[in-house]
Amino acid sequence: MNKVLLGVVLGGALGVLDGLTAWFTPAVRSQLLGIVIGSTVKGLVAGVAIGFFARKVSSLAWGIVFGLLVGLLLAWAVAAMPDASGKHYYFEIMLPGALVGLIVGYATQRFGRAPAPARAG
User: Fold this and answer.
1) What is the SS3 assignment for 97?
2) CB neighbours of 4 closer than 8 A, spacing ≥ 6?
3) Best label site of 49, 57, 64, 87, fewest CB within 10 Å?
4) Per residue in 14-42, pLDDT tens?
5) Is residue 44 classed exposed, middle or buried when 0-12, 13-18 and 19+ CB atoms within 10 A define those classes?
6) d(CA 72, CA 51)
7) Average pLDDT for residues 100-121, to the nearest whole number?
8) Whole-angstrom Cα distance, residue 15 to residue 94?
9) Left (φ > 0), alpha (ψ -120 to 50) or beta: where does 120 sit?
10) pLDDT tens digits for 42-80?
11) Position 121 pLDDT exceeds 70
12) Where are the alpha helices (DSSP H) in the chain?
């Protein structure tokens, strides 16, 4: 599987799991479906970005760092929005988001197929 597609598939799947971690926060359990959908979209966006990075940069270490940063950045963007009572859930959102980015960054570098070299005409 190519690196971008692997990033999208893995980012989406891990995004679902990321959203399901909201169940551990009782205050937001009533919003679980919306959180799972949002986390899935966040995982897909992270997967695309990380997959394209992995396609351009062939380094396991940089792939992991980039994935971690993308996961943290996207999670921070969501965590910065307060709930109806004005409370922020930075730790609850950023920890799983960072793990999604880290895992996708590792997997795209380690298991994704690099694009075939262009043929000389």
Assistant:
1) helix
2) 48, 51, 52, 54, 55, 112
3) 87
4) 999 999 999 998 988 999 999 999 999 99
5) middle
6) 16
7) 88
8) 12
9) beta
10) 999 999 999 999 999 999 999 999 999 999 999 999 999
11) no
12) 3-20, 32-56, 60-79, 90-111
CA angle 85, 86, 90 (to 5 degrees): 120
Matching residue, tokens 């380094």: 59
- The Cα 67–Cα 80 span in angstroms is 20
d(CA 118, CA 1) in angstroms, rounded, equals 18
Cβ atoms of residues 74 and 66 within 8 Å? no
pTM over 0.85: yes
Considering just the CA atoms, what is the radius of gyration of the chain in Å?
16
Tell me the helices (H) and strands (E) count for the chain, helix number first.
4, 0
